[in-house]
Amino acid sequence: MTDSNSNPPPLSLPSLDGIELRRVAGGLAAEPEYLDYDIKGRGWMERTVSSTGWGYGLGTIAGGLYGIKTGMSSVPNSRFKVKVNALLNHSGRYGSRVGNAVGCVALLYSFFEGAAEKLDVEQVTYPLIGNSPVLTPAIGGLLSGLAYKSTAGPRVAALSGTIGIGAVGGYYALTTVLGWKFASTNFMFF
C-alpha cells in the first residue's frame, strides 16, 4: 500500500543531444539578418485613429462653444432653468453635429492619404513635379472632400474637394512662409 502523501518519481526527459539546431530552425543563417525598419513616423492605422479622435474631440468642443453662443442669444425667457436648458440643448445639438462631421472628414482624409502613400504616388509623379511633400496630403484633401459630400451631387462634391485641397495648400503655404516643418504633428495634414 502506498502512502497518499508520497511524491511520484520524477519523469525522465528524452535526450536532446542528437538534435542539431539548424534542423529545428532551418532558417538560421551564419550571419544575423536585420529588419528593414524604414517607417517614417507613426503607422497608417495609428494616424487614422489619432486623427479621427482628435477631429471628433475638437469638433465637439468647437460646436459646443458655438451652441453656447447661439443658446445665449436665443433664450426666450430670463429664468435660470430655461437658460440652462437652452444652453444644454444648443451645445449638444451643434457639438455632436460638428464633432461627427469633423471626425468623418478626418477618417476619410487619413484613409485616402494612407492609400496614396501606400501606392507611392510621389515616386510616380517625381519626373513631373519633383519631390514634393504636399502631394499625398493634397490627394487626401481632395478625395476626402469629394467622398464626404458625394451624396449631395457633383457640384457640391467638387466644391468640397476644392475646399479640401485648398486647406492643404493653404497650410503648406503658411508653413513654408513661417519656416515650419510641414506635416510634423501627424494630425491630418498639420
UniProtKB/TrEMBL annotation:
One of its GO terms (biological process) is protein import into mitochondrial matrix. It comes from Triparma columacea. This is Uncharacterized protein. It comes from the Eukaryota. Keywords: Membrane, Transmembrane, Transmembrane helix. Its main location: membrane. InterPro entries: Tim23-like. One of its GO terms (molecular function) is protein transmembrane transporter activity. One of its GO terms (cellular component) is TIM23 mitochondrial import inner membrane translocase complex. It is a multi-pass membrane protein. The keyword DNA damage does not apply. The keyword Transmembrane applies. It is found in: Membrane.
